[in-house]
Hints:
The chain is α+β, with helices and mostly antiparallel strands. The chain is built from seven helices and 17 strands. It has one domain: Beta Complex (Beta-clip-like), CATH 2.170.270.
Amino acid sequence: MTITHRRIVTAHGGSSPHESTETNDDTTKHLGRKHSTVPAVTTLLLICLGLLTPIILFGRRHRDMSSSHLRQPIYNINDNDGQVPPKDWQQWGYFRFRKNFNCDEYLNDATKPVPDMEYWDTMLEVYNRVVDPTYKFDDEVPPTAGYRLNENGAQPYYAKLSPDKGRGLFASRDIQKGEIIHDGNKSDIVFPDGLSWKRFMVALPRKMACDQSEWTFTQRFEEGGPMRVASSLNIAILMNEGDTLEEVNVQPEDGNGNPSEYSVVFYAMRDIKKDEEILMDYSDYDTNYVAAGIEYQPQKQKEPKNEVQEKHTVRRCKYGGRCRERASTTL
């Protein structure tokens, strides 16, 4: 067996950064700079840390989309286990929710992942608990794929990230002009009233509430009918708006093939190629949060009728990840 002894060699018997390695049979002798394993290990750790840091930061940024953190609501309005919501939450309006939940930075992030099954399950759980206990997902098509459009299965689109637009919908096959692309009668949820929407919002985790604020839309389903609050609990809600009218390739139409603000059935306006993004025009629908009961409503405050006009900046958020802002004047 060979035993190796390590010693420091200097010109005057002191210490030096040189060393000699000897074996017991004196067959091997050499001089060289002393090498420590500590710097090498430290360097390796720093490299690993540098590689892992972006992954950790990205994961923390989007943990609400893919972990049990989803199940932590901001407020618990049914019992005392969660944080008690503000006493005036029932008077909050659409923009108050967005402001109090600090939604703008999150919603402007175009890298938000497409919601997974855990995300939709959590949203359904909250909706069942505080709005409608009977609502359920499609038995055959999961919300990550949409819903059952007809006897042939799911609607002809899928969800993925869209360049510069965030989450969006893309044709899963070639689509012919005049085909039904989406049927809100089979996909949308319609809240009984504005208060039920507010109750849903305060019961959701913050980022999910922000998503719902982006996805919420108002619509009359018949001429002269009440303005209702609606949304969706599947990928259909991710439909973006075209930057120009030329990009728009779907629109809501009535049974006679005419564009209709009261319809929730979308038809292809032209042939759409596979993997092309499905884009609508948000101005196809009227947005009126006051009429729908989700704008700020001061308690026990009366104003003379027909004397006060308020201007509200509304975000046309029918189905997408981005919204067009415009001024809406309502009595």
